[in-house]
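Quick check before the chapter quiz. The format below is the same one you will see on the exam, so make sure you can read both the input and the output lines.
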Amino acid sequence: MYFNILKGLWQDLDLFNDYEWKNSDDCHHNKKMVENARIFKFLAGLNNEFDEVFSEVRREDCRWNVMMKKKEDETVENSALVAANPAPYCATSTYLSTANISAQRSYSNQRGFEDKPRVWCDYCNKPRHTRETC
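Here is the expected output.
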C-alpha cells in the first residue's frame, strides 16, 4: 500500500517535470538516478525494523554494478593490466577498499595471512565489513 501511494505520487510529479536532454545518455543516466533515489526514499520511509533490508539492497546494488559491466568497456577490460586490478563501478570509498582487497586475493594466498589487510566495522565492531555496508 505504501509503495503504491508513493508510485502514484512520483508519476504525477514526473508529468510536471520538464527536462531538456542533450543526448540519449542523459536520459538513461537520469532514469537510473531517479530510480535509485526512489528506492532509497521508499526504504527510508519504512519502519526501523527494515534497516537490515535497506543495507542489503545497497550491498546488492554495488555487487550488481560490478558483475554487469558496460559493453563499451569490454575491450579495455580484456587487457592483462586491467584484469589484474579491476576498477569497481560503485562509488563508495569502503567498497573501493574492499574491492581492492578481493582483487588481490590470489596474491595474498601465495604470501600468507600476515600480509592480508583486515576490514573492521566501527559501528557494530564486527570483522569483514565496514560502517557503509553494515
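If your answer matched, good. The two ends are 28 Å apart (CA to CA).
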